[in-house]
Design brief:
single chain, mainly alpha, globular, RNA polymerase sigma-70 ECF-like HTH domain-containing protein
């Protein structure tokens, strides 16, 4: 697996479907599409393995690495059929099959050789997992919710990068303070005092950041879905709105 696949390599760079890109005749495009899919799915895969299969953190890291190495080596995602359900369901089913056949994991360890590992923050995923320790949802529902949570997180990171590159860092900071602060959302008047701007500026900057976040999220979602029908269904699930 290319060692350029890491959290800093933000997903996606285009709204073209990377799910369908895994079928490309261009080997580089196939590999890149698979890597971007891995970036979107590594965290829900890790958490799902920990809770569904009760592996230790260390063993879960190994299995997560091996699963995605198999994906890259065998172009596993190229076998996805959009007519048979959502792509995220396909990923979970592939993962369950991979775990059941533990012999493949042993073979993957041997095949891995000097292949660079998936460079992601497992420690952060483990910290987040403590919040799900007492979950009562079925495991498939948990996997789907974690996928959504991770996709939202990637969209927030991309929004920050775009705002910074456009000289709109204050727009992002206001967005972050209003939507992401652990103490909850302050009033517009409180934001105006905190950032030393007018309430009108808070309204305008927050409105800009909100629109940009929606755009980034929908672009990311379009890239990780295979059909327009799936895209619209996932948008409804994430945003609660019909496109």
């Amino acid at each position: 697996m290319d060692n350029h696949l890491r959290q800093g390599d933000r997903f996606p760079t285009t709204c073209a479907s990377i799910v369908m890109g895994v079928r490309s005749h261009d080997g580089l495009k196939r590999t890149r599409s698979n890597e971007q899919i891995c970036l979107v799915y590594w965290k829900p895969v890790y958490k799902y393995l920990r809770l569904r299969w009760r592996f230790s953190p260390e063993e879960t890291q190994d299995i997560t690495q091996d699963f995605f190495l198999k994906v890259l080596e065998r172009d596993l995602f190229a076998s996805y059929d959009p007519n048979k359900g959502r792509f995220r369901t396909f990923v979970r089913v592939c993962l369950d099959r991979f775990v059941v056949d533990r012999g493949r994991i042993a073979n993957a360890l041997k095949r891995g050789g000097n292949t660079p590992p998936l460079s992601v923050d497992f420690a952060r995923a483990e910290e987040e997992l403590t919040f799900a320790a007492d979950m009562t949802d079925p495991f498939d529902v948990f996997f789907d919710s974690e996928w959504m949570r991770h996709l939202l997180g990637l969209a927030v990171e991309k929004l920050e990068l775009e705002c910074t590159s456009k000289g709109k860092n204050l727009h992002y900071r206001i967005f972050e303070r209003f939507y992401l602060h652990p103490t909850g959302a302050p009033s517009y008047a409180e934001l105006a005092t905190e950032f030393a701007v007018s309430v009108t500026e808070i309204t305008n900057r927050l409105g800009f950041a909100r629109r940009e976040f929606r755009r980034v999220l929908l672009d990311s979602l379009r890239a990780i879905t295979a059909t327009d029908e799936e895209f619209r269904a996932e948008a409804r699930a994430l945003l609660g709105e019909t496109l």
